[in-house]
């Protein structure tokens, strides 16, 4: 192994294209599903030093085992509801359970994670002049009355339901992001572009909070928790274990599934680009849950049964991202189709469940 390089000293100007050099990047929630794939991608760039802060509620060290001990990588057991004093250039703020089973398990904690956790990450971003990206969610649209959902849609969310800790938590997190940006930022709304560039050069960036907001739609891929209760992981695990696929009623509800490598690419483009967002990042390919079950059955285990089971309250009936904005401002669109992504996830689940392919 090569000897460790001296750590770069953080500076807000390093986010600017003129001054880009080594980057120290914090990923809160980096031990989770999406976060660990993001770590893999960011570590490919030798100029990046990556720090993960995670409380291991739904994530695990296992997801990061190949990086533990690497000179450019650091893992901190930390709960984002507590303050964090470190020096970084960029923050990918992912910390928050994403599966309904886990975010409903302790709803008050979920709200604290979204609100106090995001406040702390913003306080950190403000103090060190780091750019911060929030992974918000399509759940901010609730049970949408507009289809597909553009970023301009304000949503249809139950404020007092069992999903509200997550949906409303993320909505407040988005509000906090914009309030920090407007209150502590140079603010694209108030200043013409040339004054912004001039003020950057005059070090006024020191007082600004640069934000990015991604609205992530359902994402799947290797390393999802096997028993985390989300539909793709449930169906694949059930198919491999020889259990019936549990379609929650009515089964006509739709989701649009994005493969994790596409998601990571979208998040990194958003972080590096000039657009604050919010921007939808997801795959517009839309499927009913019955169609998803039939696809999993056909690809993994044609002898398996599909059974209808009771649903949970407030389940959104349809969800499909309008990704016009992502295409235009990030030059991004997903590449991996559901039928290509499912076998990649199947391979990972086979290994972890010890079910070899016959
Ligand atoms: P995940 O549950 O696998 O990862 C979340 C990570 O955050 C875990 O490692 C967990 O231990 C950590 N965490 C939770 N609470 C924490 C706290 N208080 N302090 C520190 N760490 C904490 O979920 P994921 O699918 O990787 O989702 C990552 C992010 O993307 C989340 O913010 C989620 O809301 C968002 N998102 C995901 C999806 C999806 O389909 N996967 C969809 C929309 C939004
Ligand atoms: N914070 C943090 N790390 C820092 C700076 C701040 O965790 O490097 C936390 C801080 O504890 C506070 C929150 O971020 O709870 C918001 O900080 P800010 O400075 O914006 O607000 P204030 O401390 O003035 O309430
Ligand atoms: N679902 C299902 N069977 C399962 C788990 C979930 O039919 O075993 C359905 C659920 O009712 C919802 C959709 O799959 O309509 C997506 O649920 P998930 O929990 O994966 O994510 P959500 O988009 O609701 O956050």
UniProtKB/TrEMBL annotation:
The record describes its membrane topology as: Single-pass type II membrane protein
Cofactors, names only: NAD(+)
Q: Which reaction does it catalyse?
A: UDP-alpha-D-glucuronate + H(+) = UDP-alpha-D-xylose + CO2
Q: Where is the NAD-dependent epimerase/dehydratase domain?
A: 25-282
Q: Keyword annotations for this protein?
A: Decarboxylase, Glycoprotein, Golgi apparatus, Lyase, Membrane, NAD, Signal-anchor, Transmembrane, Transmembrane helix
Q: Which InterPro entries does the entry mention?
A: Epimerase_deHydtase, NAD(P)-bd_dom_sf, UXS-like
The highest taxon in the source lineage is Eukaryota
- Top EC class, one word: lyase
One Gene Ontology biological process: UDP-D-xylose biosynthetic process
List the pathway annotation: Nucleotide-sugar biosynthesis; UDP-alpha-D-xylose biosynthesis; UDP-alpha-D-xylose from UDP-alpha-D-glucuronate: step 1/1
Ranges for the region named Disordered are 1-14
Is the Transferase keyword given for this protein? no
Task: Note whether Lyase occurs among the keywords.
Answer: yes
One GO MF term on file is:
NAD+ binding
| Chief location of this protein within or outside the cell | Golgi
One GO cellular component term of this record is: Golgi cisterna membrane
> Which Enzyme Commission numbers does its entry carry?
4.1.1.35
**Subcellular localization, as worded in the UniProt entry:** Golgi apparatus membrane; Golgi apparatus, Golgi stack membrane
As for family, the record states: Belongs to the NAD(P)-dependent epimerase/dehydratase family. UDP-glucuronic acid decarboxylase subfamily.
PANTHER family named among the record's database cross-references? UDP-GLUCURONIC ACID DECARBOXYLASE 3-RELATED, UDP-GLUCURONIC ACID DECARBOXYLASE-RELATED
- The protein in question is named UDP-glucuronic acid decarboxylase 1
């Amino acid at each position: 192994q090569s000897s460790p390089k001296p750590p770069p000293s953080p500076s807000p100007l390093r986010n600017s294209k003129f001054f880009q050099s080594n980057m120290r990047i914090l990923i809160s929630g980096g031990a989770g599903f999406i976060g660990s794939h993001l770590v893999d991608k960011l570590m490919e760039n030798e100029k990046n030093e990556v720090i993960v802060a995670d409380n291991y509620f739904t994530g695990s060290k296992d997801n990061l085992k190949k990086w533990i001990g690497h000179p450019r990588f650091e893992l901190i057991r930390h709960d984002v509801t507590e303050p964090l004093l470190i020096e970084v250039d960029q923050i990918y703020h992912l910390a928050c359970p994403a599966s309904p089973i886990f975010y409903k398990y302790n709803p008050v904690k979920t709200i604290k994670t979204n609100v106090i956790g995001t406040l702390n990450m913003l306080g950190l971003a403000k103090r060190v002049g780091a750019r911060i990206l929030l992974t918000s969610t399509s759940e901010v649209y609730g049970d949408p009355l507009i289809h597909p959902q553009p970023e301009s849609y304000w949503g249809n969310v139950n404020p007092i339901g069992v999903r509200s800790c997550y949906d409303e938590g993320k909505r407040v997190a988005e509000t906090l992001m914009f309030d920090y940006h407007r209150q502590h930022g140079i603010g694209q709304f108030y200043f013409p572009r040339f004054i912004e560039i001039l003020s950057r050069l005059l070090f006024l960036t020191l007082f600004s909070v640069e934000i990015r907001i991604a609205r992530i739609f359902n994402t799947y891929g290797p390393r999802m928790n096997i028993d985390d209760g989300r539909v793709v992981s449930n169906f694949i695990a059930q198919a491999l274990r020889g259990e019936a696929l549990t379609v929650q009623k009515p089964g006509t509800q739709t989701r649009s599934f994005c493969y994790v490598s596409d998601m990571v690419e979208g998040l990194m483009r958003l972080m590096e680009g000039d657009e604050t967002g919010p921007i939808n990042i997801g795959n517009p390919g839309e499927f009913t849950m019955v169609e998803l079950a039939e696809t999993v059955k056909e690809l993994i285990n044609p002898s398996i049964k599909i059974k209808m089971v009771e649903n949970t309250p407030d389940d959104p009936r349809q969800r499909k991202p309008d990704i016009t904005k992502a295409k235009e401002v990030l030059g991004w669109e997903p590449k991996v189709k559901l039928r290509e992504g499912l076998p990649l996830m199947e391979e990972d689940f086979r290994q972890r469940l010890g079910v070899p392919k016959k």
